[in-house]
Sequence to fold (227 residues):
Amino acid sequence: MSGLYYIGDGPMFGRAVTLRSLPSRDDHNAVISQATRDEYGMGPYSYALSMCDERSVLVIEARGTIHYAAGGGIGLASLVGRRAAAILTDDHIRDRDRLTMHAVDTNTKFATGGFTLQYRAGRMLTPAEVNVPVALHQSLVTPGDYIFGNVDGVVVIPEIMAEEVLEAAVIFTRAAIVIEDMLISSGGVIGVDVKGISGDVQNEMMRRFEFSDRQLEPLEKNVTDLV
Fold:
């Protein structure tokens, strides 16, 4: 997912707690609210917040709707207070200045479609379902997926692939650091003077970093096609 506004110092990382919104309609809103209160003792939005802890990313699907906020300083104070890892939404949020201030204090990150003064609940969209599959920016997010993001964008890592993806990310991030340093210091050309994860690059990686046995496996296959 790209084109999101990002608040926070450093990357976000955590497991998805999802909140799905539906188009607002008074009669259906009342049914949703009553059903959720009967089951959980609170509305869907509050229930989603209550499920978050420091390992959680609250993912709010807004169906591409903008101009009405998915939350603001008051609503998201619970998220910040619980030290949640982040909130991710394709909707707008309110109170950017206060949330930015709190993000510094608690290290909670925000990736959002934008910012607005408008409230949303009960107008355009209504929080409806908690911990169900949701879609943001044409990307599927299921409960428990791992969410990684920074100022460049956000990626969704399915739980079943998480270990493999994270191990590979360590390898390629470290390789990129070494290759960039080599190119900058030598003035060389990628693909000519430095050919991907070559033997020289691997030797320098081993000199700088420690790797687990699982991380060493692809390096031992002499991968050279990273450009």
